[in-house]
Design brief:
Carbamate kinase; binds uridine-5'-diphosphate; alpha/beta; two-stranded antiparallel ribbon; nine-stranded mixed beta sheet
């Protein structure tokens, strides 16, 4: 097994739902601890790690808008939900001795640092895991788009998208046992076939900036470290056929 990780710096996109474990809502401490271990293992390989975290386990703007709330206000609530998740993940990582910083796109200086690109890079160079909270700081966006944006700003070697399954399938494999799994895809395949990976703006941003997207299973113990060594099962999305 090659000891050298495939990437020097990566961005990991975690959805809020990934933090729920078996729960219907909110945070599962066991799940947080297990995600922290996965991230800690990659950090211990000497890889610079930053994370964009979602908020769907707590609040989604579209859900608020569906109940009659103004969409922009609902989206701000969603962004605040990501800050809650960021603090929870920070806590889980620091419990296992990984140094972290939370940086929010919406400044709240008594809780965490405001997002400053050059400072974020400096934190990573010093071996700190940086958790980006509050998405892009703008309503009408998603944390997937925030992930692609920060990945471009941080100049990462790859964006690792954590999901509930081991890659991209032609349909949801949990509902459709005949769904086909892909090892490799192009950004255009994802866009033209409307494959459910990340939203179209995130895919386009990754494509423009030639950031490979690696889709992997968050629930496989040791899976993240395997992906970092280029092993295990995952789907990689690039512009090469
Ligand atoms: N959000 C936003 N702007 C952003 C990122 C997120 O308004 O740049 C809001 C939006 O309402 C979204 C919510 O935050 O529904 C939570 O983020 P998301 O749904 O992307 O989380 P995930 O699906 O990854 O858990």
């Amino acid at each position: 097994m090659p000891a050298v990780p495939a990437y020097r710096r990566v961005l990991i996109k975690l959805s809020g739902e990934g933090l729920m474990g078996e729960r219907e809502y909110g945070l599962d401490p066991k799940m947080l601890a297990s995600i922290a271990r996965e991230i800690g293992a990659v950090h211990a390989m000497g890889v610079e790690v930053c994370i964009v975290i979602g908020g769907g386990n707590i609040f989604r703007g579209v859900a608020g808008a569906a109940t009659g709330m103004e969409r922009a206000s609902a989206d701000y609530m969603g962004m605040l939900a990501t800050v809650i998740n960021a603090l929870a993940l920070q806590n889980a990582l620091e419990k296992i001795g990984v140094h972290t910083r939370v940086m929010s796109a919406i400044p709240m200086t008594t809780v965490c640092e405001p997002y400053i690109r050059r400072r974020a890079e400096r934190h990573m160079e010093k071996g700190r895991v940086v958790i980006f909270a509050a998405g892009t700081g703008n309503p009408f966006f998603t944390t997937d788009t925030a992930a692609a944006l920060r990945a471009a700003e941080m100049g990462v070697g790859a964006m690792l998208k954590a999901t509930q399954v081991d890659g991209v399938y032609s349909a949801d494999p949990r509902k459709n046992p005949g769904a086909q799994r892909y090892d490799r895809l192009t950004y255009m395949d994802v866009l033209s076939q409307d494959l459910q990976v990340m939203d179209a703006s995130a895919i386009s941003l990754a494509r423009e900036n030639r950031i490979p997207i690696v889709v992997f299973d968050l629930h496989r113990p040791g899976g993240l470290a395997e992906v970092m060594r280029g092993e295990g099962t995952f789907t990689i999305i690039t512009d090469e056929e």
